[in-house]
From TrEMBL:
Signal peptide: none annotated. Residues 48-173 form the Gfo/Idh/MocA-like oxidoreductase N-terminal domain. Belongs to the Gfo/Idh/MocA family. Glycosyl hydrolase 109 subfamily. Gene3D superfamilies: Dihydrodipicolinate Reductase, domain 2, NAD(P)-binding Rossmann-like Domain. Keywords: Glycosidase, Hydrolase, NAD. This is Gfo/Idh/MocA family protein. It comes from Sphingobacterium daejeonense. Its cofactor is NAD(+). Residues 184-339 form the Glycosyl hydrolase 109 C-terminal domain.
Length: 469
């Protein structure tokens, strides 16, 4: 995009938080030629100017992690609450970095997009704001990265896709679980053919969040609890579907065709609301609401006749699990409750598993994995995700997850709601690639063309500077 067009989009794009109101520009932006963002390499950005929106649960961690990446500069911070912005600034100043430009208030993010020259907008806000903010970020001339999901309705997910294509700006959903160590090991093993042809995979988000969802000091204005009232389906599928969808080459060789979602009733959340309201007036507004069920099981069939199962339960008292199960014609793998790989009736022994780790751990993990653990973020996978994103932008490389991945994985939310509402009837899944899945190639897991983005030393550790020439 040339500078004049970029400036034009930047000025006009902020007239509305969701859609451009000028008819001529509306036609220009959304008259998409179906440009294929899969494999798209945007122009190199030597120093990525980053703005972070949302400094509640996830945002401060993002500020901390990105502050370690020398190829990125956090130039703007924004949150509805000004005190959160002030607190996040200290993450930068304690490392000897410059304070970022501060924005706050309900419309602070709009003002920020209008005023700042940004390369990447990193979105950590409540779910319903992800799509509108990503759309406006791309219209303003920046790439967008958003926490999961990329959108909550099929229409807004389509708008994200079309905006990315029209502006030729990346929109990556920050699916950090794609960067967990076992998930990356098994993805590489799949690519090397060790499991044969995958025929079935399973993923999940099983995480006891009952207390957190009812914590008054948790999510701002109890927004996540409210989503458990509004959305009666699989409302958090991407941690489970993301890694297995990549293993099964969804959107680059196969596509998800249709799904069926079945859900239990709620056996705990309504009771919890009544229990808390008995001694605290604050919770009375949550009494008498219909909450999503404990367990949602969503089954998906692909164009090539393969199956995926994705589960969601954030209420029941049970151990954390994302399942991550892969079943192929030659082998099998699963992450929970214990990491295991099998090529027959029995799991390989621990020493054999270690040999597989040694041989098939991808270059990215070998290169940065140990330092990612030191920086942190879910054991290091968050930092690997952030570093890889910045390294790709700096070197003009395609991203590991395209806008089509974020779209198709996020679409499970509204489509599962629709299926549950129809007594578990089949619901078709849109093809966000518009047929390009037939020729799209899987992303390159190597460091070819990149790997030159340095890391600042961790403040409380000794000499963890990445040795990059």
């Amino acid at each position: 995009m040339n500078n004049s067009r970029r400036d034009f989009l930047k000025k006009a794009g902020l007239l509305s938080s969701v859609a451009i109101t000028l008819p001529s520009l509306q036609n220009e932006v959304f008259a998409s030629s179906n440009f294929n963002m899969s494999g798209f390499a945007a122009p190199k950005i030597e120093k990525v100017k980053v703005a972070i929106i949302g400094l509640g649960m996830r945002g401060p961690g993002a500020v901390d992690r990105i502050s370690y990446i020398e190829g990125a500069e956090i130039v703007a911070l924004c949150d509805r609450h000004a005190d959160r912005v002030t607190k996040a600034q200290t993450i930068l100043t304690k490392k000897g970095l410059n304070e970022a430009k501060a924005y706050s208030g309900e419309d602070g993010w709009k003002t920020m997009l209008k005023n700042e020259d940004l390369d990447l907008v990193y979105i950590c806000t409540p779910w319903e704001l992800h799509a509108p903010m990503a759309i406006e970020a791309m219209k303003s001339g920046a790439h967008a990265a958003t926490e999961v999901p990329i959108g909550l309705t099929i229409s807004e997910i389509w708008e994200v896709v079309k905006t990315s294509e029209a502006t030729k700006k990346h929109c990556m959903m920050l699916e950090n679980c794609c960067y967990d160590f076992f998930e990356m090991l098994t993805l590489n093993m799949v690519r090397q053919g060790l499991f044969g042809e995958l025929v079935h995979a399973e993923g999940a988000y099983i995480h006891d969040l009952l207390s957190l969802n009812f914590d008054k000091k948790g999510y701002d204005n109890m927004w996540r609890l409210r989503e458990n009232i509004k959305l009666n389906g699989n409302l958090y599928p991407t941690h489970g579907i993301g890694p297995i969808a990549q293993c099964m080459n969804i959107n680059c060789g196969d596509k998800m065709n249709h799904l069926v979602a079945m859900q239990s009733n709620d056996f705990m959340m309504a009771d919890k609301a009544r229990e808390l309201a008995a001694t605290d007036e604050f919770f009375k507004e949550f009494v008498g609401k219909k909450y999503r069920g404990n367990m949602d099981t969503t089954l998906i069939k692909t164009e090539k006749g393969k199956t995926l199962m994705v589960q969601h339960d954030v209420t029941s008292p049970r151990p954390y699990s994302r399942i991550h199960l892969l079943s192929g014609t030659k082998g099998f793998a699963q992450k929970y409750p214990k990491e295991g790989i099998a090529f027959g009736h029995s799991f390989v022994k621990p020493e054999e598993l270690q040999k597989l780790y040694d041989q098939y751990t991808p270059d990215l993990v070998k290169f940065i994995g140990e330092q990612a653990k030191q920086v942190g973020g879910h054991g290091g996978m968050d930092f690997m995700m952030d570093w890889r994103l910045i390294d790709c932008l700096r070197n003009g490389l395609p991203l590991d997850q395209t806008v089509y991945d974020g779209a198709s994985w996020s679409a499970i939310v509204p489509l599962s709601v629709q299926s549950v509402a129809k007594n578990s009837r089949t619901v078709d899944i849109p093809d966000f690639t518009r047929g390009n899945w037939k020729t799209n190639k899987p992303h390159d897991m190597t460091l070819n063309g990149g790997g030159n983005t340095k890391i600042r030393a961790k403040v409380e550790a000794k000499d963890v500077q990445l040795n990059v020439q």
